UniProtKB/TrEMBL annotation:
Residues 1-126 form the HTH marR-type domain. This is Transcriptional regulator. It comes from Bradyrhizobium manausense. Pfam families: MarR. GO terms for molecular function: DNA-binding transcription factor activity.
Length: 158
């Protein structure tokens, strides 16, 4: 599972490189695609990035033509971020080889086996969501009460 996850990250990095954007920007775009039309605040909440960092991400993606900002019809002060479908399709084409490879793998399984794999994937996803929330909960714990992981701090660049 770790190898597959790591390879997915590497594939995403390759897609981002071909698309000419940063991998973190591509990940944010993917979240936008999955979440739908959201505010920058919601995108920050989902990604764990600061609102300032999200502004930079959205600026870069907008400049590249991948997303656009849209004002809320009811409240003109509210701005939503949305994926531009035409450019999302261009990036989607970069995932076709991976999709074809996976379809070849899936074709060797029975419907019953596929249902089991789907259940495993869905339950695994829920487990990762719960584990992520628990880990993020450490951020709300005072540093002196956090587990001592013996992680060395990197020296600051000067």
């Amino acid at each position: 599972m770790r190898r597959s996850s790591a390879q997915g990250v590497l594939y995403g990095q390759a897609v981002a490189n071909v698309a000419g954007i940063a991998n973190s920007d591509l990940e944010c775009m993917d979240i936008l695609y999955l979440e739908g039309r959201v505010t920058a605040g919601r995108l920050a909440e989902v990604t764990g990035l600061t609102t300032g960092a999200i502004t930079g991400v959205v600026d870069r993606l907008e400049k590249a033509g991948f997303v656009r900002r849209e004002r809320d019809e009811a409240d003109r002060r509210k701005v939503f971020i949305t994926v531009v479908p035409e450019t999302a399709k261009r990036i989607g084409q970069l995932y076709v080889p991976m999709q074809q490879a996976m379809e070849k793998v899936f074709s060797a399984y029975t419907d019953e086996e596929l249902r089991l794999l789907l259940r495993f994937a869905n339950e695994g996803y829920e487990g990762v969501v719960a584990a992520t929330a628990a880990l993020k909960g450490l951020l709300d714990t005072p540093p002196e009460q956090r587990p001592d992981l013996k992680l060395k701090k990197r020296p600051r660049r000067t």
